Every structure is written in structure tokens, then in C-alpha cells.
Description:
Number of strands: 19
CATH architecture of the largest domain: Sandwich
Largest sheet: 9 strands, antiparallel
Distance between the termini: 28 Å
Radius of gyration: 22 Å
CATH topology of the largest domain: Jelly Rolls
Strand content: 25-35%
Number of domains: 3
Amino acid sequence: MPRILELRGCVRNNPWGSRSLLSQLFGFENPAGGPQAEYWMGVHPGGPGEVRVDGTWVPLNDWIRQAPEARLGAATVEKFGAELPFLFKILAAGEPLSLQAHPDEEQAKAGFALEDKTEVGIHDPTRSFRDSRAKPELLCALTPFDAMLGFRDLAEMHALISELDITELNSRLTDLQRGTTEGLRKFFSSLLEENTPTRARIAFEVARRCAELPAHPARRWVIELARRYPEDICVLAPLLLNVIRLEAGQAVFLPPGELHCYLEGCGIEIMSSSDNVLRCGLTRSHVDVPALLDVLTFSHGEAQVLEPPPERSEERTYATPAKEFELSRVNVEGNYTSGPSGSIEILLFSLGAGEVVWGEDGEALRVARGSSVVVSADSGAYQVRGSCSFFRATVPAS
């Protein structure tokens, strides 16, 4: 049986998705012209992938479970069981996603067990913990990509809020003036725990004052968010969080407990295969403020942007502490030879065309922009020939 197979992912049509980015960048069809938010390559039940085996499309998860150690790798099975531990995506945001954070493994296990005891169903829209896994994630920009990531430097945050001169915020600035994590926690919690009319009033005043003050990237996003969610206190988020723009090739790693929001753009995203999302606002989905406040670390300071160092002239890896995934970007001009990773790999081709070649008999699979393939852990080294670029997702070595 071939050890490198064509993979067919799943397009997710969330309302915040772009109507053009996936078709422009990857050639995906969009005959209805609706929003195409994500392209999933993995085994997640919300959008499972398929591999072509002898001309027939087979669920990726079924193919893995036929021979877990051969396909995932023995070390991966030992650590994670007979499951693909990551979900690989293209994310195309036409408008902002929800403001959110993810739990660490200990918090996920505790939250999942607690909700199981209360008999809140896994698919209940009010459920906060849908599994017992942490959800670290990495996003690498394909286009200029705007995001909010982690709390700002506290002095900078204090200055931006002071300039608004809003009574209901001025009275809380003493907490920020402490310059401590505990002061930030108290300030932020007090906003989320206010009554609904007060939160709506603050949101209105913040948007009004941002429109009156001189132009500033954070104020611009406050105005944009308020247009969509006029009564949501979280329109204040751009003044509290780092507002960053990633250029193509730059990336950010989101550890558990870090508040963030993707605003606009297209990128490659990889994460642990978890559904644990604790929303803060800017959404019509369930918001669980107590659970969110419990998982936030309230770390603050400048956002860290990843610029991968060259390992070889054609391959660069985005180093993170995540144990579930590793992402590399590979540029091929002529011939690229892999090293045997000992773990499953998914390759997504973003530019150009070529072929993947493996085995003593030189088996080959043609690839082009938008193609993805699965490399079985027991395939050994392979070659990519042609003029192309691809992203490589795998499980890091121990």
C-alpha cells in the first residue's frame, strides 16, 4: 500500500470567513460566493479529512487506525494513543473572530470532569470544556494578518484608557497604576463582571471617544468592533491587548491562558486536536466569564513574533514548546530530500507545482498549489521535486 497519500480536507463555512482568500491563494472553488473560513486537514469530527487509497476516498482516521504505529509512529502512539494529536488548518478571516483563550491540560481535565458531573452534554452550546486536552496553537501568516495577542504593557494600557477620560473607567485606573499582574486581573475582572446595562454604556462611550480622538491602530479597531458588537464591553480589547500585524512568513504561538483575537487575514494554523475555547466576548456564542478568568494568566508585555531561523537553505521550523505539533515551511527549487521524522506528516502546498517521490521503486504523487498529502511514519525519507513551497506539519521528536 502507498505510504504517501493524497489528502482531501474539509472547508468550513463560518460566517466570519473570507469570501475570496481561499480561492485566490489556493484555488479552492467557491461557486456560491459565501464565506469560507477554514480548511481543515485532520481527523476532527467537525471536519474530518480523507485519503485516497487505490482510487477510493477513505476517512483519514480509519486509515490511521488500521495500523497506528506504522502511520502515526511508535513514539506518537505512546504519547497520544492511536489518534492524530494535531489539527492542521488554513484560516481565512474576513472579519474578527471571538475574543478567547484556551486552558492548559490540568485546567482542561478539571473543567471537563466538572461539566461531565453536571451532565452538560458534549454538544450543548453552553458547554465550555468539550474534551480534557490543552489547546496550544500556532498561526503563520500567508498575507498581512491583523490580530490581538496578550495584554499590553501596563503603562501603555493605562495611557490609552486615561486618554478616553470616561468616568466609569477612570475610577478603576488605580488597579492598573499598581503595575502588577494582580492589579490587571482586578481591573479586567471588574469590567467583565459588571451588570449588562453598565457594560453596554461603557462600550458605547469607549467607541464614541475613540472616534473623537486622533487616529491610532487600537482606536481604529475599537470603532470597527463596536460597529459589529455595539453593546459588548470587549470592544475595549484593542486598548488592552497588543494589536499586531504579521507579515507573510511571520508567526505567533498562543500558549494556554493567553487572551487573543484574530482580526483579519489568511494564515496557516496548527493546534492540538482540542475543542476547548473559552470566549470572552465579540461573539454570539456562549461566554463563560468565571471559567475564562480562571484560565487567563494575565501575563503582559510586548507580543512575541516568531521569525524562524534557517535550518537548511530551503527549510525553516517555527520552534514552540508544544508537544503535539511542529510546523515548518519549505521552499523547493529543484529537489528537496526529507529526513525520516519517525512520525506522521501532513504537507500542504501553497505555491507552485511538483511531485513527491518515495520508495525504492520511485513511486510519485503530483502536487500543486492547494494540494495536501499525508506521509506515513514508516515511509522513510522522501523527495519533493519541482518549483514549489509547502508547509509541513508533524509531531516533534521527544
